[in-house]
TrEMBL record:
Cross-referenced SMART domains: 7TM_GPCR_Srsx (SM01381)
Pfam families the UniProt entry points to: 7tm_4
Transmembrane segments: 29-50, 62-81, 101-123, 143-167, 200-224, 245-268, 274-296
Taxonomic source organism: Latimeria chalumnae
UniProt entry keywords in alphabetical sequence: Cell membrane, Disulfide bond, G-protein coupled receptor, Glycoprotein, Membrane, Olfaction, Receptor, Sensory transduction, Transducer, Transmembrane, Transmembrane helix
Domain called G-protein coupled receptors family 1 profile: residue spans: 44-294
UniProt name for this protein: Olfactory receptor
Length: 321
């Protein structure tokens, strides 16, 4: 009796991030891939921010939301990747108790903020195509800020209770997190108590965050497609829809990889490594591809980046001092 009581009061103070359990010996091999992914994500999203900031042509709601998405993607990947890279390269796998839950909170929050931001962007495109005459009166600067801020507030507010409840559970060891970062479900498994409430709450939030935005985006796009089909000229149709295509591709990649990840966790035969790889791909693929998709598909952004790089190369160094 005494020993059990003693053990259950022993609260662990740190967690050990295992990474990919089956690929423990290949950390050094994985490092360059993750480093490259992180650098591409940072560079691509920074370029979008610079393009939107420096080009007056891009001072419109659509690009304001895109810049917002780039900020989210930079923060989203920065909550997990630097620590992952230091684990892969330096075998630095210990994370403090507080650090672990902060990482979990910010990772989940930014993922959620991204979901709602994609909804806001769909709404922006919906008004632009279905109600073009009232676009400027409906989507004002204040409305843009309000919509973007709502996504941030919702993201933090939805995730906060789940993370706080998980952090308050007793953890008496083992403290090895079978994941690349402090993922909610991976950490929850380590609690030495019944976690049914946490599991239900986690599931409810995950479904809310994925299903509601997905439905809202679908509704927007059904209405957009109906509107576009009513446009008489083929050129007009193409032009109207081309502003949506980048957003639509991003949405499809984001939600399909999220659902795939989610389903893989519900299939018992799926290996732990495959599950972790799914989450990692889902978490790093969208932030990395967003700028690439928008740059490939968007002439205005390409022009702004080219113009900026030319201007930079023309400015003598002395002027920058």
């Amino acid at each position: 009796g005494m020993e059990i009581d003693n053990q259950s009061t022993h609260q662990i103070t740190e967690f050990i991030i295992i990474g990919f359990p089956g690929l423990q010996d290949h950390d050094r091999f994985l490092f360059p891939f993750f480093l490259a992914a992180y650098l591409v994500t940072l560079t691509g999203n920074m370029l979008i921010l610079i393009a939107v900031k420096t080009s007056h042509k891009l001072h419109t709601p659509m690009y304001f939301f895109l810049a917002n998405l780039s900020v989210i993607d930079i923060l989203y990947t920065t909550t997990t990747l630097p620590k992952m890279l230091s684990k892969l390269l330096l075998d630095d796998k210990v994370i403090s108790f507080t650090g672990c839950f902060l990482q979990m909170f910010f990772f989940l929050s930014f993922g959620t903020i991204e979901c709602f931001t994609l909804v806001v962007m769909a709404y922006d495109r919906y008004v632009a195509i279905c109600d073009p005459l009232r676009y400027n009166t409906k989507i004002t600067k204040e409305v843009c800020i309000l919509l973007a801020a709502s996504a941030w507030v919702l993201g933090f507010a939805l995730i906060f209770p789940a993370v706080i409840l998980t952090a308050q559970l007793p953890y008496c060891g083992p403290n090895s997190v079978y994941h690349c970062f402090c993922d909610h479900s991976a950490v929850l498994k380590l609690a030495c108590t019944d976690t049914i409430v946490n599991n239900i709450l986690g599931l409810s939030i995950a479904l809310t965050v994925l299903v509601i935005p997905c439905i809202l985006i679908l509704v927007s796009y059904v209405k957009i497609i109906i509107s576009v089909l009513k446009i008489a000229s083929g050129e007009g149709r193409r032009k109207a829809f081309s502003t949506c295509v980048s957003h639509l591709i991003v949405v499809i990649i984001f939600f399909s990889s999220a659902c795939f990840t989610y389903i893989s966790f519900r299939i018992p035969s799926v290996t732990v490594d495959f599950r972790i790889m799914c989450v990692v791909l889902y978490a790093f693929l969208t932030p990395m591809l967003n700028p690439i998709i928008y740059c490939l598909r968007n002439k205005e952004i390409r022009d702004a980046i080219t113009k900026f790089s030319k201007v930079e190369s023309l400015i003598p160094v002395t002027e920058n001092i």
